[in-house]
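Section 5: illustrative case.
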């Protein structure tokens, strides 16, 4: 009897380990990775969900209204009476059944909005992923969030467990052939133009790999450098410190995502690290308070000396 209980426990552990099939990202997925405190993945997703929903209205409010208007117009295009006249009795019964099912599971406007932002369980420690759909452009969306966080007048800390955000414009299967095809969509618009043939950018490539050993890191970097420069056709140069543009490559299991961010990513944006941006603002605020105190103390000392002389 004593030997059976540990075996049962091990069986439960195995079930938990292999229970999730959603820990994969399909090719063509765009979205935002977020790192977070260990074992706080669910709380981090909840925090980001609230932040993203609020920011979604602020950044894409007009486009969302247009989409909603277009959907309403599509739904109102045909009158129900006209459809019923054309349908046979059998088709009418089928339609009534489908309408009953729809009424039993209504889709609210909020549910439609959530489809634009959908969190996928990666079953990966310290990482969450939010899948995005049009009109959201992940790198634009994240930069808007970072700009708000950088505002020195905004000292409200919106997240507790979230650390770093990383946008991916699009993704593909983990083969070099597919990565280079993806580069045509995500990297070429930033680097391949008539202007960049004359004067190029300084750029760098940052590769992050999680549960990924399909392609060596340096193979990805070397192939993307060759793609960007096109054997000297474009005047771009690799500069790991003072780059104008940074190519982010996120590798997770059998999925590779790519996006391009500007040179401030590693400077004022703190590599899109929410925690570090807030801590830097807090430190600056404390330093300013200390400066004010010192000035007040010096002023009081000087006033005291003047009064004593008088």
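Designed sequence:
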């Amino acid at each position: 009897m004593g030997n059976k209980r540990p075996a049962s426990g091990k069986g439960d552990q195995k079930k938990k380990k292999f229970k999730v099939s959603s820990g994969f990202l399909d090719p063509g997925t765009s979205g935002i990775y977020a790192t977070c405190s260990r074992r706080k993945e669910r709380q981090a997703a909840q925090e980001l969900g609230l932040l993203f929903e609020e920011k979604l209205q602020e950044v894409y409010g007009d486009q969302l209204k247009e989409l909603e208007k277009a959907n309403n117009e599509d739904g109102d295009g045909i009158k129900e009476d006209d459809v019923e006249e054309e349908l046979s009795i059998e088709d009418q019964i089928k339609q009534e059944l489908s309408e009953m099912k729809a009424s039993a599971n209504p889709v609210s406007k909020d549910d439609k909005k959530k489809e634009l932002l959908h969190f996928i369980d990666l079953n990966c420690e310290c990482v969450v992923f939010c899948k995005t759909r049009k009109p959201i452009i992940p790198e634009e969306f994240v930069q808007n969030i970072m700009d708000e966080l950088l505002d020195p007048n905004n000292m409200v800390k919106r997240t507790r467990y979230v650390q770093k955000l990383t946008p991916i414009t699009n993704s593909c299967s983990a083969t070099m052939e597919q990565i280079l095809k993806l580069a045509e969509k995500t990297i070429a618009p930033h680097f391949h133009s008539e202007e960049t043939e004359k004067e190029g950018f300084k750029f760098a490539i940052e590769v992050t790999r999680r549960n990924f050993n399909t392609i060596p890191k340096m193979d990805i970097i070397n192939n993307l450098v060759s793609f960007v420069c096109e054997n000297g056709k474009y005047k771009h140069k690799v500069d790991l410190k003072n780059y104008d543009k940074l190519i982010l490559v996120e590798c997770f299991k059998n999925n590779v995502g790519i996006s391009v961010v500007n040179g401030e990513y590693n400077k004022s944006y703190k590599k899109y690290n929410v925690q570090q941006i807030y801590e830097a603002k807090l430190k600056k605020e404390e330093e300013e308070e200390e400066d004010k105190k010192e000035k007040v103390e010096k002023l009081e000392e000087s006033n005291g000396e003047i009064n004593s002389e008088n």
